[in-house]
């Protein structure tokens, strides 16, 4: 480890070097104390949780469903906004017709 750090340009002066050999082995108590646990595949961190293939497949299907829902929402918003503008145009046309009818339906003021 120190060789890698030295090659990376890290200054290791004042650091203690630990050399592991048959006489200097880290025990189970220390490994469990620092948060490691023993599994069939070796030592892993205690907080590490391995995800199963089914969970990965479920996550993939959920992400594709989310993408499809986003597309559907975009289409819905586009359709609803276009229908609102056409409804507004229809309402504007109707209101213009009604105002012209009202103005045309008024009789000329009589002079006294």
From TrEMBL:
Biased composition (Polar residues): 100-112
Biased composition (Acidic residues): 87-99
Top-rank lineage group of the source organism: Eukaryota
Disordered, as annotated region: 82-112
Protein name: Uncharacterized protein
Organism of origin: Vigna mungo
UniProt lineage: Eukaryota, Viridiplantae, Streptophyta, Embryophyta, Tracheophyta
């Amino acid at each position: 480890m120190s060789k890698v750090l030295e090659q990376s340009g890290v200054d290791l002066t004042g650091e203690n070097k630990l050399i592991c050999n048959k006489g200097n082995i880290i025990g189970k108590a220390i490994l469990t104390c620092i948060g490691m646990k023993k599994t069939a595949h070796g030592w892993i961190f205690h907080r590490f949780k391995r995800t199963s293939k089914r969970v990965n497949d479920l996550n993939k299907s959920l992400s594709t469903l989310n993408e499809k829902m986003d597309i559907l929402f975009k289409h819905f918003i586009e359709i609803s906004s276009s229908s609102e503008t056409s409804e507004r145009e229809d309402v504007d046309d109707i209101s213009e017709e009604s105002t012209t009818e009202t103005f045309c339906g008024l009789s000329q003021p009589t002079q006294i």
